[in-house]
Task: inverse folding
């Protein structure tokens, strides 16, 4: 359900793994599978532990403000880059 997941695993990791030969390719595949398992397992455990805190309205508001500030920062940086390209 997350297209970014498929992009990472198929396109990026596939192209990197395709550079290896023989046992190195197998080692890379096993390593990426293990890293993926640890990453997603950690995300699920972390989400379960933080759920009571993250469900508070004040925390949700703080997260929303943080995301908005990041988006404004990215928008400003992109606008500056676009302006520099035109001048």
Result:
């Amino acid at each position: 359900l997350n297209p970014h997941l498929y992009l990472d695993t198929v396109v990026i990791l596939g192209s990197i793994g395709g550079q290896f030969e023989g046992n190195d390719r197998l080692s890379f595949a096993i390593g990426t599978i293990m890293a993926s398992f640890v990453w997603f397992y950690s995300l699920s455990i972390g989400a379960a532990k933080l759920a009571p805190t993250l469900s508070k309205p004040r925390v949700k508001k703080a997260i929303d403000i943080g995301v908005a500030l990041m988006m404004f920062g990215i928008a400003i940086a992109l606008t500056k880059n676009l302006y520099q390209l035109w001048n």
Observations:
- Residues 56-87 form one domain.
